[in-house]
Structures are given as structure tokens and as C-alpha cells.
Please model this.
Amino acid sequence: MADKDPEIVGTHSLIQKLHHLITKVSKTDSTVLITGESGTGKELVARKIHELSGRNDQPFVAVNCGTIPGDLLESEMFGHQKGSFTGAVGHRPGMFQLAHKGTMFLDEIGEMNPMMQVKLLRVLQDKEIRPVGADMPFRVDVRVIAATNKDLSAEVEAGRFREDLYYRLQVVPIPIPPLRERRSDIPTLIEHFLERHNDNRPYPISISEEAMVLLWEYDWPGNIRELENVIERLVILSDSPVVRPDALPANIRSFLSEKKIPRPKLAEEGMDLNAAVEEFENRIIDEALRRTKGNKQAAARLLGLKRTTLVAKLRRKRDADYQMPHSYNY
Ligand SMILES: Nc1ncnc2c1ncn2[C@@H]1O[C@H](COP(=O)(O)OP(=O)(O)OP(=O)(O)O)[C@@H](O)[C@H]1O
Ligand SMILES: [Mg+2]
Model:
């Protein structure tokens, strides 16, 4: 996981915009809040920002606010003085001291307890930390990147997350889209992971067209982590050089048969013909992209459209699809 040069694979327009944003923020010291479902690449993006920044020869320190018990988190983050609590036998630096001049990655920030939220806000504002049991604070130079898979605005609304800290953290918000909203990257990602895992095999494994269709249609609730794990497992377990649908995990195989495919019908009370036509159009476009492995030029040719027409239709489809808590308006 501690990749020195983290590679963000994908050519979907949302990923291109993400790259653009990463490049921009890496030139600054602004606080960044990365949001996205589990496995979408939040830590990868945080590392990329660090690697592209002027701090890349300094430490990148990751703290998981969700796994460190609340009462230990303070001394983990800010360190402690000798004797400040039972068991505090010596001076011990915290993560902030270790990250001095570098980047601190605060993962699962939504899990941070209210007391720590106040302390973190103070650090972000004053750029000073006070170790547990110390009389005097001291200055640190740390760039903070936070991440969460929770909807933090809803946490604020529910009174579980401080509003002032929320705004202080998301000076630059970076939402990462789930994989199912950029399916055209699935074949590229599969190739990437096949290449990585095929290294340890006597002969390389590839994915059949039919199996690729299922992998494209699957919804990937665990996003890229799930995709990587599936590919790694296929490479390890496959007895044949070509993976066919029957070799895919059962949950992926059954997904398609259960996925409801709407078949528009003229009901008694009538129907919305425009919506039905649009629905049909979207499915055919999806299929054309799938067959051409996401190549828009080739897909447009299959559909008898100009590339620009297809791109316009995709943009409209995307706008309709995304009723997300935030827009990817980078
Ligand atoms: N665009 C991408 N290209 C290549 N690999 C990716 C990409 N996005 C994520 N990955 C890989 O997927 C895995 C999961 O990514 P990461 O740990 O950054 O996700 P996360 O959002 O932090 O997940 P979680 O919320 O579960 O902590 C990692 O192995 C990462 O390298
Ligand atoms: Mg993570």
C-alpha cells in the first residue's frame, strides 16, 4: 500500500478532472477533505497529493481516527510528557511531530470524537500542538489531508460533527466517484491489475469477452479494492488461461440475473415515451461502450453517431444519473 509512486489508473472524464484538481492542490498547503465510498482510492489520492507536493521528501503520516480508541487518540496525535497519565513513562512524540514539514493523513475523520474535534480545529487554526501534560504548545508545520466515507454534512446536521471544523477541513473538497459511475474505466483497471498479478504466474491469465460484460455490469459496492481483490483471486485460482463467466465469483454472476432490467410498457394510465426512449438509448450506449472497451470513437461508429454527439449524450446521461450528495463539479 505504501506505493512510492502511486498510480491513479483511469481515463474517464471524472478521473481526468480529479488529476487536474490533485495537481492544483498539491502546489498549495490548503487543507483537503477527500470523500468517497469505501475502496474508491481516498488514501491513494492523499498519497498522490503528497508525492506531487514540495513536501514529498518529508514524511507522509497516516492516522486512522476510527481504529484508535478515543482516549488514546490525543496522545497518539500530539504526543505526551512523562507522567502525564498512568503508563506515560517517557516523553513521546505524536503523529504531528513525526509529520513535521510533511503531510498528515487523517483517515475516517467522521469517527473523531467531539473533544478531539475541538483540539484538531485549534491545531488547524493556530498551527500549534500541545502534547498531553505539556505546559506550552509548540509550532508544527504540517499539511493536513482528511478523508471520510461518511456524508459529513449529514453528520454536521445531526450534531455529531462540528460545523466549524467541517468548513475548516474542506477548504478544498475532493469527492471521488464510485466505480459504477465511471464504468468505462473497468477494462483499463482490469488490465492494470492483471498485469500486476500475472507477474507471479507461469502463464498469463486473460478475461473472456463474456466475463468482461459481467464485470462491467456489476455494481462494485467495494469499488476498486473489490475489483483488485477479484482479479487477484482469479489470477491465483484460474486453471485456464482465459477466465470465462462460470469462473467469476457467484455474487457477480448472480448480480446480473437479479439486476432489474426495466422493460417499458404502455400501461393503462399511459407512459412517458421520452423517458422510455432515453432509457433504451442509455442501455444501447452502455453496451456499445462495453464492446469497445470504453473507446468513444469506436462506440460512436458502432452506433452510427458522430463522436461529439455520443459525448453530448453521455454528458446528459451522467447529469441524470448523479443524484449524489455532492456534485463532481471540480
Ligand atoms: N484509480 C486507481 N487506480 C489504481 N488503483 C487504485 C485506484 N483507486 C484505488 N486503487 C487501489 O484500490 C485500493 C483501495 O484504495 P484506497 O485504499 O486508497 O481506498 P480508500 O478510499 O481509502 O478505501 P477505504 O474507505 O476502504 O479506506 C488500493 O490498493 C489502491 O491502490
Ligand atoms: Mg482508506
Notes: The pocket of adenosine-5'-triphosphate (ligand 1) is lined by residues 7-10, 36, 38-44, 149, 224-225, 228 (CB under 6 Å). The domain at 180-321 is CATH 1.10.8.60 (Helicase, Ruva Protein; domain 3).
